[in-house]
Amino acid sequence: MTNHPDLAVAAAPTPVAAPGRGWAVAGVLAGAAGFVGLVLESGLAMFDREEVYADAALMYAETYDRGLIIAVFLPLMVFAGLAAAVFGAGLRRWLAAQSPAGSLLPELAGWGTLLVTALTLVGSGPVTEVYFQVLHTYNPADPDIAMSLQRLLDTLPWVWTGLLLTTGAVTWAALRHGAAPRWLGWVSAVFTLLMVAVNVFPQQYLTGYLGGIWLVIAGTAFALRRSA
Fold it and tell me: Transmembrane residues, as ranges (predicted)?
C-alpha cells in the first residue's frame, strides 16, 4: 500500500526556531544606558558650594548651565527603562523553560525589571518641566518649583531596588535548579546582598549603579550562552 504524498508532507515535523538573543542584548544596553544616565544626573545633584543646597535660587542659577545634561538624561533613562522591560520578558521566558513547573522564579524575575522600568520612566518624567523652566522657554520660572522638580530627578530614577526580585530569582534559579550559569548565580547573589545593604544603611541611590552593572553582566552572560 502506497502512502499518500499529502499525508507524508503533513506528517513532517515543523522546525522550531531557537529563542533569539535580542532580549539579552537589551539587558546589556539597558544597564549601560541606565548607568551612564545616572552618572550624568549626579552632576545635577552635586554643587561646589555647601550653601547652595539650602537656597533654591542659588541651585537654580547653577542648574541653568546644565541644560545639556538635563536634555540627554531623559532619552537615556527612557531607553534604559524600556530595554529593561524587554530583558525581563526574555528572562522570564528563559527561566520558565528551565525551572520546575509552577515555579514563581520567572514571574519574580520579570516583575523586578518592570519595577525598574516604572521608576525609571516616572522618575525621569519631570525632566521636561525642569528643562523648560531652567531655560526660561516660556516664562521666568519659580526657583522653588523648578528645584523641587529637580529633586525628584535626584531620587526616583535611582530607585532600582525592585531589581532585587530579579537578582534574587536568578540566584536561586542558577544555584538551585541550574536554570542559569552557576557563576552568574554567585555573581547575582553578591549583587543581591550589596543592594540589600545599601537599602539598609540607607544609600538606596546606589542601587541604580549596582543594577546597571548587574544588567550588563547578566545580559552578556545570556547573549553569549552556548545553547538556546
Answer: 23-47, 68-91, 157-175, 182-201, 207-224
Closest CA to 31 of 112, 92, 87: 87
Q: Cα angle vertex 188, ends 112, 186, to 5°?
A: 155
Cα separation, 132 vs 212, in Å, equals 28
Question: From CA 135, how far away is CA 133, in angstroms rounded?
Answer: 5
Of the candidates 97, 88, 89, 87, the one whose C-alpha atom is nearest the C-alpha of residue 180 is 97
Residue pLDDT, tens place only, 29-86: 999 999 999 999 888 777 777 788 788 888 887 787 777 888 899 999 999 999 999 9
In angstroms, the first-to-last Cα distance of the chain is 42
pLDDT tens, position by position, 148-168:
888 888 888 999 999 999 999
In the chain, where the domains are located? 21-223
Contacts of 109 (CB under 8 A, 6+ apart): 88, 91, 92, 95, 165, 166, 169, 170, 173
SS (H, E, C) the chain: CCCCHHHHHHHCCCCCCCCCCHHHHHHHHHHHHHHHHHHHHHHHHCCCCHHHHHCHHHHHHHHHHHHHHHHHHHHHHHHHHHHHHHHHHHHHHHHHHHCCCCCCHHHHHHHHHHHHHHHHHHHHCCHHHHHHHHCCCCCCCCHHHHHHHHHHHCCHHHCCCCHHHHHHHHHHHHHHHCCCCHHHHHHHHHHHHHHHHHHHCCCCCHHHHHHHHHHHHHHHHHHCCCCC
